[in-house]
Amino acid sequence: MYTSLTDRRSFIKKMAVLSAMTAAAAMFPGILFAEEQEAKIPNSENLDWKKAPCRFCGVGCGVLVGIENGKAVAVKGDPKSSVNKGLCCVKGYHSVMAMYGKDRLTKPLVKKNGKYVETSMQEALDLIASKMKETIKDYGKDAVSIYGSGQWTIPDGYVASKLFKGCIGTNNVEANARLCMASAVTGFMTSFGIDEPMGCYDDIDHANVFVLWGNNMAEMHPVLFSRILDQRLKRGVKVIDFATRTTRTSMASDKSIIFKPNTDLAVANAICYEIINNGWVNKSFVEKHCTFKKGLTHMGFGLEDKYAFTDKPELIDFEAYKTFLKDYTPEKVEKISGVSAKDIKYMASFYGDPNQKVMSLWCMGMNQHTRGTWINNLVYNIHLLTGKISTPGNSPFSLTGQPSACGTVREVGTLTHKLPHGVVTNAEHRAHAAKIWDVPVENIDPKPTYHTVEMFRALDRGEIRFMWIQVTNPMVTMPKLKRYRDATKKEGRFIVVSDIYPTPTTDIADVILPSAMWVEREGMYGNSERRTQYFEQMVEPPGEAISDTWQLVEVAKRLGFEKQFYYKKETHVEEIYNEYKKHHEGKKHAMAPLEVLKSQPGAQWPYVDGKSTKWRFNSKYDPACSNGEAFHFYGNPDGKAVIWQRPYEHAPEEPDNDYPFWLNTGRVVEHWHTGSMTRRIPVLHQAMPHGYVELNPEQAKVMGINTGDKVKLTTRRGEIILPASVNERGVPEVNHVFVPFFDEGMLINELTLDAFCPISKQPDYKKCAVKVEKV
């Protein structure tokens, strides 16, 4: 069978890999391995392999793209990447196929007399600049806007912010990361005074217990979940799934605990009660490094236009906080949440045990929440009370959904209130940005304008007349969708959409610009663990497609900002990145030099003295710590983290006699977000060709509904008919249904509610009341 010791070792290694692959495949789907995938690539050794971060989710897996005759023909996991270590999910391994759909947009289209007419890129850019000038002249600078996403590269988002905030002078810059990551941002800001996780993926290799807070990690972040399962095989770690529905994550976990929607707030407080009641508080850590605060409560849900909220935090002491928690004993919370007191104590025991390292992980279940900032705060409370933070294996960690939601939205600052290094409301931050941008400081408006939901409401009302949408699909993703789709069609609105394929969003455009995708251009993404990753242009884009960055640069020059947008086309990405780096100089947020990013699979900021910072706020690892203590939460003026008193409150809309079910929405492993790319990949589209509604099996039986039967869902905002899914992938609780949102033919967001967290302004896609009927 083998002819040498080397062959024998190779054989044993391959058998071990095969066993691991088989075990992982049995636990959950969606994972492929480098060895498995490369075996399917003909003549793989003859391809020109180039590194890049994956195009899809915020995990930021490193991939190697195989180039042959000017075309990307293969992809495999990059074994040098510390993120995925050669492993990829099913989307990553098919990512290059997303560039070659038959209906790629290749030429600019302008709507004339209700029909799209091909035009040149120069003419299309001239028209966009002309419309912007006209709109600003007639209605003022705040009548123009841009809406991007965490799919923007860092250069894309940077020039968008510079053009609109620095040159035009409007803060009408938003990104659809507001719909998925804003509560994580405000959670970090309110607890630590500075954004982004203090830990990294290496925490997975050190933690003993993983608590997944409303996070179907097996499907949403399968590569990271595979790393957790690998640790369970090696070290016997515990995985606890805490969710509102049974998923593939539940099935692969050691324990699944189901809670009623919105009551994660109560359970988190009950865990804090248990920690204090059992004497598990790390008193030294809390006394040295924490303060206690409370804010406003019962502040509404943003359902009305022009809703405004400003929190009024006030200091409290530990005794006041302890008194507050008396309403959250496990026995009392059991009645609210449906989680047994025994299970609450079980979860608390891991956090409270000084010998257990605990990693809390969450995604949209916590962030898409009308009290999203609060639940982020409460999970931080648990880690702060026990001192289980900023050390290897002790990590509260918010996962992201888009490849650069952290890098381009949170770090670059493409939200209405943000700047690359701070906020528009801060005079020093405005002056710093103005100097780098070479604009008068008066250009940067000190007042934020519209967050995403309110931006589309302003478009509806006519306060915004021009909107440029890049690399996102809001006519699928916006909640209460019909209102905002109708808004785009009103007279006097001009919509520009930059994309790679036709979507429901290009359908409402006045001008459609074809964009270069991923490795058809040069750029950088920033992933969930503060890792900035560079990719070079590997192939030419089709037709007249150009990058979103260069589209913006060309329009900026036409608007008269040649001085600020001096970049040369051949070197513009390097010039933009080096300019952007100036915003983050210093030990708290220094970015790695471009040559470092080119030479390796990314680097984590703060990048200081030639080294990535893996754990922030810990003086052992973080060079920004300067208080002489073991920990320094330098985002806050006093150097301390905040433990927040945040109560449980009801959701804005709950089931009643007319609408007796909870509606929950989300993703599936085969498709990424609205599916505009993954539905062009035949194997993924065939595996998951359309949307569906998951029903509880017992209720489905009573209602006479079987898999494939047509079901009508109705909310106060609309109705939709979908095929039923019973006892297939996920299993909702009684009076719950789940619908994925990738299918543009079944627009579930016509039914969802546009309520949002008053602090983060992030909508809640997980909870509204719905009626279910068999058709």
Characterization of this structure:
The protein is α/β, with parallel strands linked by helices and 775 residues long. It has 4 domains: 5-100, ADC-like domains (N-terminal domain of TfIIb), CATH 2.20.25.90; 109-177 and 406-566, Rossmann fold; 182-277 and 320-403 and 633-645, Dimethylsulfoxide Reductase, domain 2 (3-Layer(aba) Sandwich); 661-752, Barwin-like endoglucanases, CATH 2.40.40.20. A 7-stranded mixed β-sheet has the order 7-6-22-21-20-8-9, with helices on both faces. It has a 6-stranded mixed barrel with strand order 29-34-30-32-31-35. The chain has a 5-stranded parallel β-sheet with strand order 13-11-10-16-17, with helices on both faces. Helix 5 runs parallel beside helix 22. Keywords: 4Fe-4S, Electron transport, Iron, Iron-sulfur, Metal-binding, Molybdenum, Nitrate assimilation, Oxidoreductase, Periplasm, Signal, Transport. It is found in: Secreted. Residues 1-34 form the signal peptide.
Overall number of structural domains: 4
- CATH class of the largest domain equals Alpha Beta
- Spatial strand order of the main sheet: 7-6-22-21-20-8-9
Structural class: alpha/beta
Helix content: 25-40%
CATH topology heading of the largest domain: Rossmann fold
Distance between the termini: 60 Å
Radius of gyration: 25 Å
What is the count of β-strands?
A: 35
**What portion of residues belong to β-strands?**
15-25%
**How many helical stretches?**
26
User: What is the residue-averaged pLDDT?
Assistant: 94
Largest sheet: number of strands, sense, barrel closure: 7 strands, mixed
The second-level CATH architecture of the largest domain is 3-Layer(aba) Sandwich
* Low-pLDDT residue spans: 1-29
GO molecular function, one term: nitrate reductase (cytochrome) activity
Catalytic activity: 2 Fe(II)-[cytochrome] + nitrate + 2 H(+) = 2 Fe(III)-[cytochrome] + nitrite + H2O
Protein name: Nitrate reductase
Binding site for [4Fe-4S] cluster: 54, 57, 61, 89
